[in-house]
Amino acid sequence: MYRKHLASVLLALVTANAPQLIAEPVLYGSYIEIQSESTTAGLRKVPGLGLSAKTFANRTAGAHRSILFWNISRGSWNGQSLDSLKIVTVIESHGVPGSPLEGAMKAVVYIDEKATAEKAAALLDLARELAPRYLKNVKRIRKAPIQFVKKDHALKLSIRNHLAVNIETHEHDSAAICEAVCGKDSQPGKPLSRHVKSEKAVGQKSLYKAEDLDVRWSSTTSQSCLFGQFGL
User: How confident is the model at residue 217, as a pLDDT?
Assistant: First the structure.
């Protein structure tokens, strides 16, 4: 009886002092975020909306456009394997996203055309988990041929006839080079997506020309551009 009691005590002590195991992420991949606002992006009215010049000016004053992209390397969600699939969300807001003044927002979600109906539903639910604040007002959900290419430090994201994004990541050999490339503020802002670890990148192109939002835009620079990894 004494030996059994001693064994139980020792087992309890070992269990209590054992290091906690860290679970591997069930899903992970890379992330791009780019933002452009109306004072630097070339915004223009979408034909057929019937907006007066005054109404259009009021809607676009201080408006911000954001593109969020998740490239899933491996993982499952809602019981569906999402290996190598992609999601893009385009957000339109009246103020700076992520700030107290971001104002009303609406979004368009692009789901990888290679996804089955079940996987598409899982991708949409995943996007809502990653960016719940920005997918409350989804105007349209599209399946699309999402193209993503990474070559060295150059990254290109595109959806034919809808959007294109070019960014460049880099390594800083010195503070002077960092300031020359990134500007005086080299620290990345807080990502709009949850579960992301990111670094600042240089936005070289941001283009949206579909008709699902009020305006289209084209910009050769970006005020905020991030590249990183996500996992959950």
Answer: 82
Taking a C-beta distance cutoff of 8 angstroms, is the pair 2, 137 a contact? Answer: no
pLDDT interval class at 172 (50, 70, 90) = low
Domain presence at residue 8: no
Q: Which amino acid type is present at position 62?
A: G
Structure token digits, residue 225: 């551009």
Mean pLDDT along residues 151-179:
81
Residue at 41 is within a domain: yes
Q: How many domains does the chain have?
A: 1
Identify the domain containing residue 48 by its residue range.
25-231
Strands 42-45, 215-219: parallel, antiparallel or unpaired by DSSP?
A: antiparallel
The verdict on residue 4 lying in a domain is: no
φ/ψ region of 197 (left if φ > 0, alpha if ψ in -120 to 50, else beta) reads: beta
- Is residue 195 scored above 90 in pLDDT? yes
For the segment 52-74, what is each residue's pLDDT rounded down to a tens digit? 444 444 444 447 889 999 999 99
Asked, for residue 191, whether it belongs to a domain, the answer is: yes
User: CA angle 196-225-173, nearest 5°?
Assistant: 90
